[in-house]
Write a structure and sequence with these properties.
two-stranded parallel ribbon, 2 strands, NAD-dependent epimerase/dehydratase family protein, Epimerase_deHydtase, NAD(P)-bd_dom_sf
Length: about 45
């Protein structure tokens, strides 16, 4: 049988669904690299 590396590049890992998917993939033995946006200050948009 082939020895396949199970690596995933994931975006959205900090969202509600993403965190659950992330935990499930880790339990299945996947190696995860998660991208996230830098933290920025909230701003008010004047319209």
């Amino acid at each position: 049988m082939l020895d396949v590396n199970k690596k995933i590049l994931m975006t959205g890992a900090t969202s509600f669904v993403g965190t659950h998917l992330l935990h499930s993939l880790i339990k299945e033995g996947y190696s995860i690299i998660a991208l996230k946006r830098p933290i920025t200050e909230p701003t008010i948009i004047n319209t």
